[in-house]
User: Fold this.
Amino acid sequence: RGKGKGDGPGGRASSGSAGAGRLPPITITRQRNLVFTYRQGGEFRTVTSMDKIPAERRGWVRVQDPKVPAVGSRYVYVADLRKADSKGAFPYKVLTRRQFLEGSSLPSMGVPGVARGASAMGKVVLYTRPGCGACDRLRSYLSSRGVVFQEKNVQTDPAAAAELKAKAARLGFPVGVVPVVDINGEIVVGFDIRKLESLLRRRV
Assistant:
């Protein structure tokens, strides 16, 4: 098995990837003509540009290279498109098609497989606004734990702001404070790591 530290230079699949060696290595960069498939709600969508993938969905994306011949149908390239390396390449794993369909995130490109907590958490909504450092940390934390969440910007989305205000009035937490994460009706205000860990342990 691999060491769980992600892929090597140039976005090559690590030896720990499921099916590594059964698909030829590829390099995933913004400059290449590639096809991307990502989960959006209960369905999968396919696009030909990274920019068309919502930011919160870029941690778990199937990548197809039209120039690479298909090798069977069991294994696929699954990439983390959130951050490229120093050469502009994005890390990926070679996983089974089933792992891609059932998973939702590659936290830190660790051991391949279905991300922990991806389906067990149910509905998770993160309320944020631009320029909020705690929002950035909470977003990264949820992604690193493999939690699928919907992010709502209360500064640019009046409906999201009204929704958060209504929840604050109903549940008794401060109005106008972000980040706020709603995990199946349980509210965490701010980046409260202890409460978040407690909820994750109970639900995963």
